[in-house]
Design goal:
It is globular, with a radius of gyration of 18 Å. It is 74% helix and 0% strand. The chain has 170 residues and is an all-alpha fold. The protein contains seven helices and no strands. It has one domain.
Length: 170
């Protein structure tokens, strides 16, 4: 709901200001540098979201490393040609399995899984959908919304599938 409110507000500002929301051409950088920057951003974002759960420093570090690994995995799979939704499924499945296996943390499992997953939510597609719908470009907006929905669905299914492998506690 927050994302929807922000996207709607920004689309109104874009419409009133006459801003062109099209994306600029990507900056050309060396692939190893791109991988490093992605990994660093994933670690920082995962760690920052983990801080919202008031977790201990050791757990913040673990969540940051988990976010670094899972998001880098997702982006590498996409770079190799896998669509974003299946790549998101695999990354979320990895997060789910790691949090099921590792019993060293005394925080709830949700605190370990939400932060790495949140950084993989496709806010750009959600924003594009709202802006395109607002501009009357229904088909393009619907395409962005569907891509967003498939990626979020892949994230949810990846975590749910990993949960199938957890031992039942009586």
């Amino acid at each position: 709901m927050i994302l929807l409110a922000v996207a709607l507000g920004l689309s109104i500002v874009i419409a009133l200001a006459g801003v062109d929301p099209s994306r600029p051409a990507p900056v050309e950088i060396a692939y190893p540098t791109k991988l490093f920057m992605r990994a660093l951003a994933s670690f920082v974002a995962g760690s920052a979201f983990s801080l919202l759960f008031n977790t201990p420093a050791r757990t913040v570090l673990a969540v940051g490393l988990l976010a670094l690994f899972a998001n880098s995995q997702r982006l590498l799979l996409n770079d190799m040609g896998l669509m974003l939704a299946p790549a998101a499924f695999i990354a979320a499945f990895t997060i789910g399995l790691v949090t099921l296996v590792d019993q060293h943390f005394t925080v709830p499992r949700i605190a370990m899984t939400v932060a790495p997953i949140v950084i993989m939510i496709p806010g750009l597609y959600a924003f594009d959908a709202i802006v395109l719908f607002n501009q009357g470009q229904a088909l393009e907006g619907l395409g962005a919304a569907v891509r967003c929905g498939f990626i979020i669905g892949g994230l949810a299914m990846g975590l749910a599938t990993a949960r199938f492998f957890s031992p039942e506690k009586v």
